[in-house]
């Protein structure tokens, strides 16, 4: 009986944690106008921290991917030299937005940056981007 109660309590805690990680409609609705305002590395980090559990939604994913492409295309040097790449969260935020749906000219520009202007800290991002070159849309 004691083992059953421990298992039951563990299951309740797990379900509760999953519920807290879900993207509810209120959060999703906040994310749509926020994603179009993402234009800098800092704004990308803030958006990712607040809305990361919603990014996998099809209706937000494309907008998020566009935001990542804007940041990479316009602020490449700032991204690849950011000390925040060390903790991995910025890397994850960017890798999640790497997409074959990027506009072709933007994609070419970012791929060129990844080939020629990558830093050791940014290598995981560059590697992810260079996959696009091998698998173009």
Keywords:
mainly alpha; 137 residues; globular
Question: Structural class, from helix and strand content?
Answer: mainly alpha
Percentage of residues in DSSP E strands: under 5%
Order of helices and strands: HHHHHHH
Helix content: over 70%
Low-confidence stretches: 3-20
Largest sheet report: none
Tally of alpha and pi helices? 7
The rounded distance between the terminal residues' Cα atoms is 57 Å
Radius of gyration: 18 Å
What's the mean pLDDT score? 84
Number of strands: 0
Tell me, what's the shape? Answer: globular
Describe what you observe in this structure.
This protein is mostly helical and 137 residues long. The protein is 72% helix and 0% strand. The protein is built from 7 helices and no strands. The chain has helices at 2-21, 25-35, 41-51, 58-80, 89-97, 104-116, 123-134. Helix 4 (58-80) crosses helix 5, helix 4 (58-80) runs parallel beside helix 6 (104-116) and helix 6 (104-116) packs across helix 7 (123-134). The radius of gyration is 18 Å and the shape is globular. The model is unreliable at 3-20 (pLDDT under 50).
């Amino acid at each position: 009986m004691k083992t059953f109660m421990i298992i039951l309590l563990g299951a309740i805690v797990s379900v509760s944690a999953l519920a807290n990680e879900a993207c509810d409609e209120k959060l999703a609705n906040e994310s749509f106008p926020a994603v179009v305002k993402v234009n800098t590395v800092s704004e990308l980090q803030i958006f990712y921290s607040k809305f990361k559990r919603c990014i996998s939604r099809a209706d937000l994913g494309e907008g998020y991917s566009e935001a990542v492409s804007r940041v990479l295309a316009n602020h490449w040097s700032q991204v690849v030299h950011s000390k925040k790449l060390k903790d991995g969260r910025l890397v994850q935020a960017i890798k999640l937005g790497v997409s074959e749906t990027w506009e072709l000219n933007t994609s070419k520009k970012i791929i060129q940056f990844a080939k020629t202007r990558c830093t050791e800290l940014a290598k995981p991002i560059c590697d992810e981007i260079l996959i696009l070159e091998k698998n173009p849309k």
